[in-house]
Amino acid sequence: MSADQAINILVTITLVELMVTIGLGVTFADVARVARNGGLVARAALANYVLVPAATVGLLSLFHTPPLVAAGLLVAAVCPGAPYAPPITAIAKGNVPIAIGLMVMLAASSAIVAPLLLHVLLPFTSAEELPSVDVGRMVGTLLLTQLIPLGIGLTVRHVRPLLADRLRKPANWLSVALNLAVGGLIVGVDFHLLASMGPIGFEGMSILVIAAAVIGWLLGGRGRDTRKAMAFSTGVRNVSVSLVIVTASLPGTPAVTAVLAYALLQTVALALLAAAWGRWTR
Which residues of 67-106 are buried (b: 16+ CB within 10 A; e: fewer)? Predict the structure, then answer.
């Protein structure tokens, strides 16, 4: 088994386990409460599926990003619904229930929307160097690895809430261990690519992280706590889904390294922002 195959298998297992874990901690009432707020849902869709991808395409063009790196960052841009958005929202003293509802709805919808967006947007950044996107295969993969496991977790939570409570803590620890293993394996295999990105690459990614959070804040509607939830739900992209896409479609390329670099940068930057915001609020 090659290193690329091992990475693809590990990130797939990580995503499946992560989606089940998310479902174990969320009730259908949490999701329904957000779903009933049509204006909030519409603004979240606009922020995550229109404005953030559009801003990403603009920044990639402005920085003349190499095609494979651009592809990795674009994949991250079209994949919202990260499981770290609610805890980061909590650190910032934002509305955590809304962050949870947005996370589930965005994670579920991205299984279908993200492949379609990539099919449309990749030609703007990649020219002829990238293979075409098999939308049907990608949708099928994300349904199996993202939507179905999420549904299983939600169902267990609804039918057997005490069992879900017992499973959540070990499932969270397993998620952390799997994510560390994925990051360590990719860094070990592609460290030379990570080191070659340079300060300009990280500067561009920093601007993108800030732009995504600002877009979420501006479209958050009324209420400071709700706007915080939208800001971090939009700012934190779903790296697990992104890695499943790039390791399957572009294995062993700078696209994989770009997604990992973006993951590290957004986690540190947004966690620091949330901590400062939370202290200022208190």
Answer: bbbbbbbbbbbbbbbbbbbbebbbbbbbbbbbbbbbbbbb
Q: Rounded distance, CA 47 to CA 212, Å?
A: 8
First to last CA, the chain: 52
Q: Tell me, what's the pLDDT at 228?
A: 93
Q: Residue 261 class from Cβ within 10 Å (0-12 exposed, 13-18 middle, 19+ buried)?
A: buried
Q: What's the pTM value of the predicted model, to 2 decimals?
A: 0.83
pLDDT above 80 for 54: yes
Q: Distance between CA atoms of 181 and 136, rounded to whole angstroms?
A: 29
- In the block, residue with structure tokens 């990570």: 194
184 pLDDT above the threshold of 80: no
Quote the Cα angle for 99-17-70, to 5°.
Answer: 70
Burial class (CB in 10 A: 0-12, 13-18, 19+), 148: middle
Q: Contact, 87 vs 261, CB < 8 A?
A: no
Measured distance CA(266)–CA(209) in Å, rounded: 6
* Amino acid found at 276: A
